[in-house]
Amino acid sequence: MTANQSNLEGKVAFITGGNRGIGLETARGLGKLGAHVVIGSRDGERGKVAAAALQAEGIQAESMKFDVLLADDRQAAYAFFEQKYGKLDILINNAGVQKEVEHLVPMNETSSVTPDTLRETFEANFFTLVELTQLLLPLIRKSPAGRIVNLSSVLGSLALHSNPEAPIYNMKVFAYDTSKAAVNMFTIHLAHELRDTPIKVNSAHPGWVKTEIGGQYAELDAAEGSKTSVMLASLPVDGPTGQFFFMNNQLPW
């Protein structure tokens, strides 16, 4: 699969958790394709610094103080895009947490994961992702070619976790993995609901990336980790929907 990565002029993109790491590189990649990118950052000042850095590269960028966990911030994001642009073309649900282990190394502590860790992980990675997407969907429907990219992980794949031959078989990070499996199910369901519209909804595995979540043993840098999200955000009209990708490779659910 290849995407037509020349069609983002005039598009407005919102990247949650966009002031650093994969989110910032996704904003940079979309901006280089002509999109006007809006960075959502929990730290307003860091968001401004990130947007200024993109602007210095010739990218149309701005930032907003945005914490996906806060209902007021989600409402403020809707009001911002509705009032300033009247639409939203691209939503990158990039923000997320991993609270169980410092580095994603082979492990399995399923029997001792606390209810608080499960709830906090699902709140950040799943429930608020769904709430934000539902809230912004009326604006995405106003786009001639809306794109929703949900940041998942190969660690959310049931097929691979149950396969002893899979490279992730021993990487059982229970709360994080199950939250990403839930994100994948949301992708499938929302894509089905929107199948007769121009909107495409896909899950992205960024790869094992050197970020706070990925840890020091990760293989890819953030720029490489952003490529799948940029690809899915710039899909042509005949591109896939309701699928799970790493780069050009479709992953099993």
Automatic annotation (TrEMBL):
<dbReference type="InterPro" id="IPR036291">
    <property type="entry name" value="NAD(P)-bd_dom_sf"/>
</dbReference>
<protein>
    <submittedName>
        <fullName>Short-chain dehydrogenase</fullName>
    </submittedName>
</protein>
<keyword id="KW-0560">Oxidoreductase</keyword>
<dbReference type="Pfam" id="PF00106">
    <property type="entry name" value="adh_short"/>
</dbReference>
<dbReference type="InterPro" id="IPR045313">
    <property type="entry name" value="CBR1-like"/>
</dbReference>
<keyword id="KW-0521">NADP</keyword>
<dbReference type="InterPro" id="IPR002347">
    <property type="entry name" value="SDR_fam"/>
</dbReference>
<comment type="similarity">
    <text>Belongs to the short-chain dehydrogenases/reductases (SDR) family.</text>
</comment>
